[in-house]
User: Fold this.
Amino acid sequence: MSCNRRDFMRGGLGGAAAAAACATLGASPAEARENKKVPGNAIGLLYDSTLCIGCKACMSACKTTNELPLDDNVGGKLWDTPFELSGKTYTVIKVYQDGTSVNKDQVKDGFAHIKRQCLHCIDPSCVSVCPVKAMTKNPETGIVSYNADACIGCRYCVAACPFHVPQFQYDTPFPRIAKCQLCKEELAKGDIPACAKVCPTGATLFGSYNALSKEIERRKDMKPGEANVFPRRTVDSGDTYERAAAHYTEEVYGAKALGGTQVRYLAGVPFDKFDLPVGLPERSYASQSESMQEALYSGLTVPAAAFAGLMLAAYFGTKNLHDDEEG
Amino acid sequence: MTDIPIRPSIRRRHEAIGGKLVSRLTIALSLLVGIALFFLYQRFVYGLGAVTNINNGYPWGIWVVWDVIIATGFACGGYAMALLVYILNRGEFHPMIRSALTASVFGYSLGGLSVLIDLGRYWNFWHILSPSYFNPGSVMFEVAACITLYIVVLWIEWFPTFLEWLGTRGIQKAFERMLFVFIGLGVLLPSMHQSSLGSLLIAMGYQVHPLWQTPFLPILFLMTALCMGYAVVIFEATLAAVGFARDVREELPLLEKLGKVVASVLLMFMVLRFADIIDRGQTGRLTEGNLQTAMFWIETVLFAFPIAAFSFGSGQSRMSRLFPAAASMLAGAVLYRIDAFLVAYNSPTHWHYFPSAPEILVTLGVIAIEVLAYIVFVKKFPILPGHEYR
Ligand code: SF4
Ligand code: SF4
Ligand code: SF4
Assistant:
């Protein structure tokens, strides 16, 4: 006899059970879950690249507040010089430069700053992929926290974060994931995130998600060059100053992509200039991945049914194992 | 059609091949294990960065991609053969199941242990099995929990071999009567986690190249797992024939049939893969002049060869192609998994990854342990098909 495809897929109890198992595993996500929604009391940050002067006060304050070590990358132990987020650095100010780098917030011969940190996604990939709930999103504030006591160090969050934020510590036998947690300890004390607190121009601004949304709209409506009032520290701190509004690009970074983020950016140059991913779909990857898992494993009904079939087939298969020559 | 009751026949069907354990090969393998242990010591004292080249752009290196994702694929022989013998009722393959199962026991056990080497916070590993930490939406949770369970199931499935060696026939009989539960699990669990290995990539979205990133990843991974399982059986049987100077002429017709199974599943894999690429409107990617496109075509050629070699020709000519075809199939599957997780993974430009020498030596050490264990076991326990069973 020959064991060709027809034989392989051939009927019988076992064949049917195996086919059922295969079919369900290949099933398209039936009840796709939607993107998560912004939590009721969501808070966040607005980073306005056009206001940032690149003083790096936020970086320094972040290190002090979170008790992070210096990250010297130029040698000579001169000063804290992180090039990117790292196991020692939760936030870093980077700069886009072109040609002579003299025009602030312009693409040609210009320069522009960007603040890298966790964006506190509304539907975070890191929370979705973590096998042991070491990454969690606060249902009230939306802060995405990391719990080292739960973490097994699999680094799935590092691989899956669409913004390359979580940083694993490769240089220690007792590593953790390093990531901004929006200064949750400061918030618990009634204070605000350290980076927003020290920012001299209000480029990093703390506030409720909704208040920041309004502030974003207000700035987008400003006429470039016209004098306007800008708040410092928090949206409603009352600590304001006047300056000429810059020209903003169309995109608000974090407004919609992958379900949106609670830390959002405004800038004068397109965001791909900062090496940030752009053109991302609106549906979150977390919802895609979880829909797939739900369709296959929700309530373990599919595996249980497949198991019953397989067990039955194996019962007869082992009991009456025979050479069949009729195929 | 003859009914051969399974239990009385087992004695005749499997035999220990005996022979000395110390040989040039086993000494070389032990040496590799020693080297690996040295680097593992460094890894646990100084951290992962002291030994590996993984970084925050490529957080998963070969200790994940080879030691777990590929090694468990290689260890799918037991799963694939159990599906064929017990579920699809192809009793003719029964004599081959034990050696396949033995290879799977070691492949998966070592894969499981390698996870502990790679986990940054390995002392928390038990969280995977503790309900208060469960995150059922996480593919990694499914993979980790499912593989852990399957390792236990594999050892249970293998246990009768040990009982037979002990000579406790009564216990062995009783044990085998309840084995169907574990055989059921032994087919279910790999179906789950082998497909999930593909699902791991779905959450990575745009970071995985569109020639690999697809909602069909789970089914594609499952298909390659099955093919790897059968191809490994063919590969090992032909290799054991050389290594242990065994006469495998009687097994050849069976191996040939396995080859046909591989060819059919692989054909479905290829059709699905290309149909999906067309459906997603990514055909343009097939003709780009970059590394990813080149790798995609190398995979395709490595898969196409076994489809042809296993399907066409007859008798002697086909048999002589068994080994190269199985090897090509395995190489294709290895590349498919490496590509999906590393070559197709697009990290910010300033990050690069290529495994360091110590990293590779640790992986070689793990493979050496596996081969050593297999050699010891087939020499001491009744595992390989005996030849008088006809
Ligand atoms: S930016 Fe990355 S680390 Fe931060 S919440 Fe989103 S997915 Fe998580
Ligand atoms: S490294 Fe830790 S926090 Fe990140 S996914 Fe793994 S267990 Fe979760
Ligand atoms: S919110 Fe706190 S932890 Fe996050 S970047 Fe600002 S200072 Fe650092």
Notes: Chain B has one domain: 11-348. Chain B touches chain A through 85 residues (CB under 8 Å). The longest strand of chain B covers residues 14-15. Residues 11-348 of chain B form a domain with the Formate dehydrogenase/DMSO reductase fold fold (CATH 1.20.1630.10).
